[in-house]
Every structure is written in C-alpha cells, then in structure tokens.
Amino acid sequence: MFLWQYLTPLLLIAVQICKGQQCDEFTDLNLGHAFIGTNIRIRLLLYTRENSTCGTLLSHTDLSDYPQFSLSKTTTFIVHGYRPTGSPPAWVNDMTELLLARDDMNIIVVDWNYGATNLNYLKAVENTKKAAANLTAFIEMMQDQGASLSSIHMIGVSLGAHISGFVGANLKGLIGRITALDPAGPQFKGTSKEDRLDSTNAQFVDVLHTDIDALGFREPLGHIDFYANGGTDQPGCPKTIFSGGSYFKCDHQRSVFLYLDSLNRTCVSRAFPCSSYKDFLDGNCLDCDEFGAAGCPVFGYDVTKWRNILLKLGQTKTFFTTNPKSPFCMTGYRVDVMIWNKESRWGYITIKLHYNGTEALATINHKSAKFMRYTETHLFAQFDKDVQSVEKVSVKFSTGNIFKPKYKLRVLQLRLTHLEHKERSLCRYDIILKADTEVTFRPIPCEGSNF
C-alpha cells in the first residue's frame, strides 16, 4: 500500500506525457462511407516546426490550449478536394513538411473528409459553402485574438480551391493569399463569381490549371493563372481509358505534384505571359520586359516576388511546359535557324546539349516549321534539363513524312540563346543537316550577323 501511494502519481504523469505525444491523424474513410454518404464535419489539424509530423486537433472555439500556435506568424490552411473513396490525400504530409521547411509558420490541414467523401459529387459541392462558413468563423476567432488577415494563406486543391474562395469572400477579400491548384470545373463552370473562386477573394490569388478539359476549370480565376502544358494532357499521364482510374485523375492531381516541386526548389519553372498555348509553343511570347530585371514569373510558392507588378497588371495568363515526372521543370532556349536552300523546307528539329556526360533533349515537333532562304526561323526549344555549360550540340532535322524525299537542310547559321542566363548566344555556321541524321558539333560564341 505504501509503494502504491508513490507509484500512482508517477503513473498519472506518464499517462499525461503519452497523451501529450499522441498525434491526431487525418480521417481515414472507405468506399462504404462513400456509398452511404457523409455529412459535413470539419477537423483542423495543426502542424508547426515543433510538431512538423505530428498533428494537433484544434478546438473551434478556444485556442488557449495551444501555445505552439503563434498568431503572429503566417498561418497556411491546406484544403483538400473531393474524396470519392474516402482515403486521406497521399500528398498532404509532404506539403506540410515542405512548407515548414520553407518558413516558420502555422500549418492547418483542413480535414473535411466527412463531407467530401460521397459518391454523389453534387453533395460534396453543396458541402463546400458549409465548410467555408466553418473556416470563416475559425479565422474570425483568430482575428479576435490578434491574428492579421494578411497573414492568412489558403492552399486549395480542386473543390478546396473554391472553399478557399468562399472563405476569402466571407472575409471581404482581406486574407493575404489564395493558391488554387486546378480548381474544380464541374458545377462551377458558367457560375457567377459569388459561386466560385475569384481574384477578389484575397489580396493575391495565384491559380494553376492542369485539367481544363475534364475535372478542372478552364477560364482564368486569379491575378495570375498558370497553364501547365496548356492546362491539359499532362506528360506521363495515361492517354487511354484502359489505364483505369489514373486516366481520369492523373491530369487533375498533377497540379499538386507540380506545386510540391516548387516548394522543394528542385528546379524553376519559368512561365510566359501569352494569349494562347499555340503562340507560346511557337515562341511568340518570350518577351518578359514588362516584369523588369526579375524576368517572367516563376510558377509556384515563390510567385509572390512578382506580386506587386501582377496586381498592377490585373490579370495575367501564363504558360509553361513540364517533364513527365519530377523534376518537372524544363529549360527554355530560343533557336534561330537560317538556311541557304533555294526552295523552302518544312520539318521538325531535335536538339541535344552535351556537358560532362550529361545530355539535355528538346524536340520541337508541335508543328512543322517552315525554313526559307536568308530568313531566320524562330523556334522555342524546351529541354528536359539544364546543363551547366554546353560542350557539344547534336541536331537532327526530319520531315515527318516517310513518303517524301530525304531533303537536306543547308544551314547558314544556327543560334542558341538561353532564356535564363545572360551569356552570349552560341552558334554554328555552314552545316548540312541530312534528314533523320544527327549531326554533332562544338558551338562557338555568336558573331554579329551579316544578314
């Protein structure tokens, strides 16, 4: 009995320590819940640098029990989208950890899986405004306790993008930033701005589009809208329905993985303002002078560096291309070709850059280019990687038609200009490109043109 009097307090302390170390997890549902349908229920999971991998379930009415939740810091809300199978989003932990690696902030994962899990998509859409009302009340409580609306950043995926927009509208557009990753299209296309995300919902709204022909929203919605690969048919995603579920969701989900790459700073995706994807691929939109010394905006987390000028411009539509997998970013060069063939030639160009055993590849094949005597043909080459320096260049010309003669392209000058670096352009003079035959050479710094 004497020993038990001493052990009891120790056991109680141990229990409290264990409780303190317990992590709250994202709700894990299943297809059964989707069949039955779920009613809206919001759980807010807090992550900070002190508990970057261990979520803390927040109260919706009292923040006094969470000393790690600093209202003087930025608070980023991560809002997922429709969950037809009820499983937790596979990407949410990676996004949380990468954000915290970038900045010392509060991360709140908005778990509205009860409400998003339903085979009836229309019911999930209906729940978005209910979720937004809940989040609005929570942010107003934060504001009452000293938080600034300018310090709020909402990252919304699919339906989560519109939830973020509704929250911003409820708060008169005063929250600092909304990042929308492929905002949902079905049930939102053709609606008024009160019923979807809009650039007036926050002080700064940046939007990524990756599936505009199916699950995503086609039209611009923010101060800057990024269209990866034209906003549809993402490289590496299945092309036929025989690939199963990934055929339907791969393009849509790619938005998240592109954003994760931007957080990880694996590489940089420069986006070019343009009226259409065709003009972008044709190299008609490579002028970034309006953005000053910073150049064209970079997609992702760091686009806020261009915030002030983007706000002045009002709305900017940009395009960039990606690789099929991470690292997704590509490297752009302007390619100028001048020939001395008497007759015009039509065809495609493939270029490889070599450096220290590394090879970067660009295939310019979105359309057949026209080459004319003593006239520069301007092409936009997008390489799958950047190389530190260019030791050798390999070029191949093809007509794309096996029934036509094997033309030769007699090149007076081929000039390569890196769109990021400010070094002198690289050139090669007087070469003959036989159709479908690769020619490799060492480039030299370009001389002044005589033409």
Helices, strands, pairings?
Layout: H1 2-21, H2 31-36, E1 41-47, E2 56-57, E3 75-79, H3 92-102, E4 106-112, H4 113-116, H5 121-144, E5 152-157, H6 159-170, E6 177-181, E7 204-209, E8 224-228, H7 246-264, E9 272-273, H8 277-281, H9 307-313, E10 316-320, E11 331-339, E12 345-355, E13 358-371, E14 377-383, E15 392-398, E16 408-418, E17 426-434, E18 439-441, E19 444-445
Parallel strand pairs: 3-4, 3-5, 5-6, 6-7, 7-8, 8-10
Antiparallel strand pairs: 1-2, 1-4, 9-10, 11-14, 11-16, 12-13, 12-15, 15-18, 16-17, 17-19
Key words describing this protein structure:
451 residues; alpha/beta; single chain; Lipoxygenase-1; 10-stranded mixed sheet
Characterize the structure shown.
This protein has 451 residues and is α/β, with parallel strands linked by helices. The protein has two domains: 20-320, Rossmann fold (3-Layer(aba) Sandwich), CATH 3.40.50; 331-445, PLAT/LH2 domain (Lipoxygenase-1, Sandwich). The protein has nine helices and 19 strands. It has helices spanning 2-21, 31-36, 92-102, 113-116, 121-144, 159-170, 246-264, 277-281, 307-313; strands at residues 41-47, 56-57, 75-79, 106-112, 152-157, 177-181, 204-209, 224-228, 272-273, 316-320, 331-339, 345-355, 358-371, 377-383, 392-398, 408-418, 426-434, 439-441, 444-445. The chain has a ten-stranded mixed sheet with strand order 2-1-4-3-5-6-7-8-10-9, with helices on both faces. It has a five-stranded antiparallel sheet with strand order 14-11-16-17-19, with no helix packed on it. Helix 5 packs across helix 6. The termini are far apart.
